[in-house]
Structure formats: C-alpha cells, structure tokens
Amino acid sequence: MATDTTNRSKTIAKNTIVLYIRMIFVLGVALYTSRTVLEVLGVEDYGMMNVVGGIVSMLGFFNGAMISSTQRFFSYAIGQNDTQQLCLNYSTILVIQAGLALLILLLAETVGLWFVKNYLVIPQERLTAAIWVYQFSIGTFIISMMQVPFTAMIITHERMDAFAFISIAEILMKLLIVIALPWVRSDKLITYMGLIFLVVLLTFIAYVVYTRTRFKYVKYIKEKNKALFKTLIGYMGWNLWGNAAAVIMNQGVNILINLFFGPAVNAARAIAYQVQGAVSQLVGNFQLAMNPQIVKSYAAGDLEYMHNLIIRGSKLSFFLVFILALPVSMEAEFLLSIWLKEVPTYATQFTILVMALSCIDSFSGSLMVAAQASGKIKVYQSVVGGLLILNLPLSYVALKLGADPMATMYVAIFISLIALYSRLRIITPLVGLKAKKFVSNSILPSLMVATASVAISLAIKHSLPRQSIYASLLMLFCTVITVVTFTALLGLTKQERIFIKMKALKR
Question: Distances in Å between the alpha carbon of 93 and those of 34, 99, 294, 438?
C-alpha cells in the first residue's frame, strides 16, 4: 500500500515537472505575444477582438461542461480497470460532442451574430473586421470542442509529456504568427484571427492522430446504450449550468463594460486577465497533474489518499498562486510599464484585484474535482452556479448607479468568497471529508502566510524610495523571499518540509 502511494506521488511529481516545462514556454510566449499584439493592433482593435471573441466564449460553458464530465468518466473507468466501459464512454461522448457542436454553430450564427451587429459598441468602419473576427472565433471554438475527448484521453492516461509537446508546438506556431504580424499588409486583425484558426485546426489533428495511434485499445463502439447516454446527458446538464454561470460571470461582465465604457476599458481588463492567466498556469499545471489521481482514488475506494490530495492540493495551489500574485500586486504599475509600451487606463487596478480573486479561487480546484469524482453534482452546481451568475446583475446595478469599472471586480471577489464557503459545505460531506479538517489544514495556514507576507511587504514598500527601478526590483525580490519564508515556516507541516527538501536534493 505504501509502495502504491509512493508510486502515485511520483507520477504526480513527474507529470507536474513536465507540465511546468510546458508552462515556461507557454508563459514566455503568451507574455510576449500579448504585448506585441496590443502594440500592433492598437488598443481599440485589441479591445474589440477580446469583446467579440468574448461573445463566442459565452458559449464556452458547453465546452467546460464537456471537459469536466469527460475527464471524470474516463478517469473513473480507468480507476476501475474497465476497458469496455471506457470504450463505451468514449463513443457516447463523441456523439454528444458532435451534437453540441452543431447546436452551438446554430446559436452562434443566429443569436450571437445578431447581438454583435446590433448591440456591441464597435466603430462603424471596423464592423466588417469584427464580423470576420467573430466567424474565426466560432470556427476556433467548434474545433476546440471536438478536441475535448482526445485531450481528456491523454490527460486521464497521465501522458503529460505528449500533452506538453503538442501544446508547445501549438504555442510556437502562434509565436511565429505574432512575429510576422507587423509585416502583414492586409487587415492585421482579420489575418491574425485567421491564422490562429489554422493553428487550432492543426493542433486538433495532432491530438486525434496521437490518441488513435497510442491508445488503440480505446475504440469507437456503435452500440447504443440509452442508460449511459441518459446518465452522461444528466451529468453534463448540471455541469452546463455551473459552467454557464462561470462564463457569464466573466464574459458577461466584459460585455457590460463594453456597453458602459467602450472597447478601451475592455483592453485594460483583458490585460489584467492575461496576467491572471499567466499566474494561473502555475496552479493549473499542478492541478492538472493531480486531477486524475483524485478521481481514480475515489473510484478505487481509497478515500484517505483522496482526502490528503484534496487538502494538500488546495493549500499548495494557494501558495503557487500567492507567490506570484503578491509581488505582481505590489509592483503592478512597474511590471505593466515594462511589459507594455502603452498601458491602458485601469489596467493596474484591474490587475491587482484580479490577483486577489485568483488567490481566493485557488482553494476551489481540488474541491471541484472531488465533486466531479463523486458524481453527485446536482446540489453543488445548482447552488454555486446560482451564486456565480449573480455577478452579472449585481455588476449591472453597480454600473447603472454610476460606479467605475472596478466595481465589477469587488462584486466578483465578494461572490467568490461566498462560493468558496458553499463549495466547502456541500462537497466535503459528499466525499466523507470533514470541513473542519479542510479549514484547519488548508485555509488557516494559507491565511497565516498571506497575512504575515502582506504586512511585511507593505512595510518594506513604504520604507523604499519611490519612482525608482532599483527600488521596484528590490521590492519584487523581497516580496518573493517573504512569501517563500512564511510558506516554509507557517504554511507547511514538518512532513511536507522534509518531503520537499528530499525531492529538491534528489533533483
């Protein structure tokens, strides 16, 4: 048993390292491309690209529901060593995915297109470009949808090396596009989105070829299993609601900002979420390596190991986000000025508040996977989804009353805190985990680290000279050291410190 646990821990560690190598490439390229695309396109076109693409992203709740559902059913079948059930799940999910893709295409080309033409704030001379951006965004989204079962098959088999390799190839192709963009003579926005669509198509082909050749035992079965189809549809239905709420929370507010303030503020918000995406890569890679093990351990009945993964995963996820979020927040203006030639108004404020939101949400990753593993998601998705969707009407009321764009972030932070509390109360009983144990072993140590780190960092910041590049660099260094120190002293248990030390020395 001990050997099995050690092997599973080694698998998580190995996959995490592979995913972090991927992250270095993705993060570096993403930061460069965001800066270059903003510079080449300009604030107006960049903001328009994000808000128009956001209309398609509103339909992303379909994709989000499929991702979580597919990975759960694949991992559960593998955890029970049931190859026949895995093939049946794979076949049924492919059929459902194709049907959803057709439905989304219909909605996008009718309701979505009508909304873009009639309600978005777009300069008249750029309306044609906006329509092209919208069409390419639809095509990109449809392909991404059809890719879900193939990506999930790689992740549930924990073949993170293949996942990382294909991802790196994809991001390098996007890098080449950005490098060539300044020399494009035709409309740069249309050309950029068209080439991105082509890259996504090639990536999809790569995933299909790999899964078909590597996992030959997973075959399409024409057998119609109405019971499984009903189970999957019901499961996905509740995930659809939860993911729709999350998408509306983000993209719905993006549209509100466009309607109240125009595309320039959309650009500022987009920059902040680019930074958030870069920071989230850290926890995302870690979580991605852990997710299959959480589901598989539940399927195998090893609840003790599952509980340890949930608690430790949530705590370490927070630390991984916080170690970047705090330095970024302390020197947001300085970092954005180095990264971007033109920093949009409100970008700094958006960035700081988005970092706070990311820290709160970092606790929820392992809990959400645990809910998916249990299969009992009706109450969870109903309550949490209902809470998240409140973000849109509350933000609308705030903006209607004359609040500035930052009000939308304060609303989001408040809703996220309530959602975290609700997840904890609902999910822990489903998997036999005591909420008190989770709070005392995950949330409380994290709060201690955060409180001490923020207090010391603010004291250092006030003692340093203002408007100095050297002071900013010193501040960044001191903040990172502060977080690392308090994480080691207050955040980790003795066993965790010994484990990390041994792994570091081994590496």
Answer: 34, 10, 21, 34
Asked if the structure places residue 285 within a domain, the reply is yes
Per residue of the chain (507 residues), give pLDDT as tens: 445 555 555 555 555 566 656 666 666 677 677 777 777 787 777 777 777 776 666 666 666 667 767 777 777 777 777 788 888 888 888 888 888 888 888 888 888 888 878 877 777 888 888 888 889 988 988 898 888 888 888 877 778 778 878 888 888 898 898 888 888 888 888 898 899 899 999 999 999 999 888 887 777 777 777 787 787 777 777 777 777 777 777 778 888 888 888 878 888 888 888 788 777 766 766 676 777 778 778 877 888 888 888 888 889 889 888 988 999 999 888 888 887 777 888 889 999 999 999 999 989 888 888 887 777 778 888 888 888 889 999 999 999 998 999 999 999 999 999 999 999 999 888 888 888 999 999 999 999 999 999 999 999 988 887 777 888 888 989 999 999 899 988 888 877 676 566 544 444
Q: Which helix (H) or strand (E) holds 131?
A: helix 127-156
Angle at 120 between CA 119 and CA 126, to 5 degrees: 125
In a domain, 462, yes or no: no
- Residue 494 domain-assigned (yes or no): no
Compute the C-alpha angle 305/375/315, nearest 5°: 40
Cβ–Cβ < 8 Å for 6, 502: no
* Residue 30 · residue 274 · CB < 8 Å: yes
Number of domains comprising the chain:
1
Instruction: Look up residue 373 and give its amino acid.
Output: A
What is the rounded CA–CA span in Å between residue 223 and residue 85? 12
**Beta strands, E only, 180-223:** none
Helices 2-57 & 127-156 angle (0-180, nearest 10): 170
The structure tokens listed for 316 are 């370490």
Identify the H or E element spanning 132: helix 127-156
Tokens representing 135? 């069409």
Residues 417 and 447 sit within 8 Å (Cβ to Cβ): no
What's the half-sphere exposure (Cβ side, CA atoms, 13 Å) at 99?
9
401 lies in which domain range? 2-433
Q: How far apart are CA 145 and CA 255, in angstroms?
A: 23
DSSP 369-397: HHHHHH---HHHHHHHHHHHHTHHHHHHH
Cα angle for residues 282, 22, 136 (degrees, 5° grid):
95
For residue 416, CA distances in Å to 257, 390, 395, 434 come to 20, 11, 14, 21
Asked if 246 and 61 touch (Cβ cutoff 8 Å), the reply is yes
d(CA 215, CA 212) in angstroms, rounded, equals 6
Burial 239-249 (b: 16+ CB within 10 A, else e): bbbbbbbbbbb
Tokens of 39: 């510079």
